[in-house]
Design brief:
- With 97 residues, the chain is of the alpha/beta class.
- The protein is built from three helices and four strands, in the order βαβαββα.
- The chain has a four-stranded mixed beta sheet with strand order 1-2-4-3, with helices on both faces.
- The longest helix is centred in the N-terminal third of the chain and has 14 residues.
Length: 97
């Protein structure tokens, strides 16, 4: 059963955020790999939130940009995707020259 959910924890969605575009992208990826979309959750969050996830579930004590939990079964794509907008913004900002 297809269920794609979007959440935010301590941040606002980026200005370019579009559920429709993300779903279209997911559909194209699923077709390409001959898979089906199951239950997917995308959690846009702050650095502090992703650090807590990293500590509590992976026993890592550092910030990161993305953490994924894979719950796939057979050809059904399912999982959780945590995305730290703080760290992603840091990685995409132009570096000083």
């Amino acid at each position: 059963m297809r269920e794609v959910l979007f959440f935010k924890e301590g941040v606002e969605y980026p200005v370019f955020f579009s559920e429709a575009l993300i779903n279209k992208w997911l559909d194209s990826i699923a077709v390409y790999y001959s898979k089906k979309i199951g239950a997917l959750s995308f959690i846009f969050c702050s650095d502090d939130y992703i650090l807590d996830v990293n500590r509590n579930y992976l026993s890592h004590d550092y910030y990161t940009d993305v953490i994924t939990f894979d719950y796939c079964e057979g050809d059904l794509l399912s999982g959780d995707v945590f995305i730290s907008l703080d760290t992603c913004l840091l990685y995409t900002s132009p570096s000083p020259r």
